[in-house]
Amino acid sequence: MNEPAKTWSVPDSLIGKRIPKMDAPDKASGRTRYIQDLEIPGALHGKILRSTRVHARILSIDTSAAKALAGVHAVITAADVPWQRPIGVGRDHLPLKADRVLSLRDEIAAVAADSEAIAEAALKLIRVVYEPLPVLATTIAASAPGAPRLHPDRPDNVAMTFDYAQGDLAQGEAESDVVVEDVFRLHYVTHCCMGVSGVIAEFDPSGNLLLYSNTQVPFLHKREFAELLGIDPGRIRIIQPPIGGGFGSKLDIYPFEPIAIFLAGITKRPVKLVFTREEEFIASPTRQPVLLKLRSGCRKDGTLTFRDVETVHDNGAYTSWGATTPFVMMQTISSLYRVPHCKYRTVAVYTNNPYAGSFRGYGNLQATFAVEAHMDKLAEAVGMDGLAFRLKNAQHPGEVTPQGMHFKSCGLKECLTTAAQRSDFLRKQAENRSRWNDPDPVKRGIGMASMLHVGGGAKIYPSDGCGTILKIDDFAHVTLITGASEIGQGSETVLAQLVCEELGLPMTAVTVVNNDTDITPWDVGVHASRTTFIAGNSAIGAARKAKRKILEAAAAKTGNRIDELGLAGGFITASSGEKLFELAKFLRSLHFSDKADLVMTSFYYEPPSRHQDKQFKGDVSAAYAWATQVCEIELDTETGIVRLLKVTGAHDVGRVLNRLGIEGQIEGGIVMGQGYALTEDLRVEAGVIRNPNFRDYKLVTAPEIPEMDISFIETMDGEGPQGAKGVGEAPAICIAAAVANAIHNATGTRITALPFAPENVYRALHGASEPPVWNAA
Amino acid sequence: MSANCDIAFTLNGVKRELSVPAGMSALAMLRERLGLTGTKYGCGEGECGACTILVDGMSVNSCLLFAADCDGRDVVTIEGVVQSEAGERLRSAFVASGAVQCGFCTPGLMVQASHLIEQHPGADEAAIRRGIEGNLCRCTGYRKIVDAIASAAKPDPGQTPFSEGQP
Ligand code: FES
Ligand code: FES
Q1: Which ipTM score applies to this complex?
Q2: What is the pTM of this model?
Q3: I need a surface site. Which of A44, A105, A508, A569 has the fewest CB within 10 A?
């Protein structure tokens, strides 16, 4: 049979092009099956009974009526799973609460039934008798002497503390000509993934567990579920269906997952458990609310001298990743700008509130909000403009900060100047100020903020690596098997693109397999903006091995040296560009020969970053990302309404790999930052969430988005895949800080508490509210 | 349990007859009874637009519509929208413009956009933004969704929607 030669026209390089996401056609057709869409034959539907009290002792639970309902297969409480173990980052809560509830989301019982409606009806038949306990609604109440202990082993209700110091604070203060101090209050927000949480659990007759899960960290969860069930992790397989948004919310184990597993184990049927939107608001994690006191100083010439920071985090009832965000906050405090003397103390306090998890930016929005307010305030105090002041204190490439972070590539100065120039920052800033006293109640403001974030992984686990398996079949089709999960951010596409770049193939020649722990090699998970950097380097490593193998075999045939050969457009080519072999045919000939072989390679990439020491000194990431964002607002002083008109951003991303993808990450991050600054506010009163719905929890909608002008600063990081650095979290980080500075530029009033909702802004402008005060115990 | 209603309607151009519980939403009917899972549950309260469908040419949140009220109507879901030429153009535009990230909001937005373009063929940017006000997206920041709808609303006959590697 005479096959037509398989040739492709492939552009010289795919890097920096606008490559559409590989999964977009299916998603835009409604064909993609998310966890909510999966129907497993014979599956039961699980539902959870949550506490109706914020803090109470459970005196009794009566499940008899629920058990008697037709169509109910199991009703379980803690008594049915006496062997359950504490879960989560702090290992401080049982999936099903035994004798006490500590927050309104607490899981008391669960039902597996033939339908969701029956499961819901059964929940209503469960009778729980509570004895109320005093509610610790604030960190102050929880820290007061004599406050009840929420966890027996924590006499002071402290969940976690971090202490960091560099230099000599007293010396820094003595050297200062200007010192400023403020207290900042950062509010509750939550992820609002459009796809609600869900899980499907199923055991086979030998006791092997198959879990369909939306987790962002499948391999870590395998281990944790194994620990929980007391089985070998090898008997757990996690499949990740496409996920309706992550943003950090799926980084920890939450009780609903073990509960679905318990129900599946007890009923011996697959169990599907999916949240309602209200449940998602109540029982998924939040961004951590923080009270932050910042004292900073500088010399007359604008050189920063010191920073002294104390924070109190409302940890909520249990410890998830939110408690560890100070780890990232301290990097911004010590190293976003050059500051010789720093002290940072933080405490996360248990309360009866919803508990805080990880959320895109991981504490950095809060730290940047405070630090960037003081950059403006200090600049003004010494009579410098905010741009010159920041440039004077900006980090340089090659710098090793007192905390030990090594900025091998650093485009902060270019970010600052680019964003300032493109937004005409200095001129507009002066013009807006000159209008403070004119009669028009509608003011304009412009403000800037910069950020530093890990951009080359983050060594917080023993490994920060990612594995790749790559095979090229008889038809020159590549299967890229990667440990890195796709959570909507586009990693699948960028990894395929990096592989195509090495192998001279078009995007259509690659299939990516990334969602099954029985197939994919190890990866630490989607977090810390690490996937493009870590999984990208891993994919390139595997592709280069494959390329070498092919070219060695070709060289043996032609007598060329392998550096005289290349791969392009589906051919093995000579340096002249002459096509020597059609790749597919050549690959077939490899295994139909006497030295039969396949082209299949694997690669494991572990970044060259190190663990920090006990004092938090050291370099956690192989590269760091930088950005400056300038926000322009319009503020109506008669209503307090702030409109975000324009964001001018300059991002040091190392190098642009997929322009379409990176723009999407940045635009989405900006609008998420806009929500944090202006509209989103999870109202928690005495432990009760008052607005668990999209009517009262206001996400930004299309008519409200700002004009966005985004520039990329390509610093070509030496460690990055094709020079790229991570970008996933960066764009959300500066917006609230820049808007705060813009409000000051518009009105002369500095507001130190979020969000800038009309009522809060109006009150602040008209002297009807007090700034937050430092009242941590 | 509630009484059932017998209904007959057109679904994506095909006649259907069905018996549904009186309290069932059109969303539940589509997803659970008819296996059309392109229509998504995002809130169940008419606040997110993930469940948008067309009923007699009007865009409707199917979570708020009783299944029984589909009786006698012409219902089109995302699965039907992408079968039309306009829907195909819209899908290409969403893909090429980068309007899809996690994709959970996308079917609802596709349906809403097809409605918008049909009602206002020359919709400008402001009209497009207002037209998708009821559809929440947590990933994209809407910019590329608006671009996609604008480009599908004004197809440039000289250009294919996208070619791979186009700068
Ligand atoms: S699910 Fe219908 S509007 Fe949200
Ligand atoms: S693409 Fe994720 S919600 Fe819109």
Answers
A1: 0.95
A2: 0.95
A3: A508
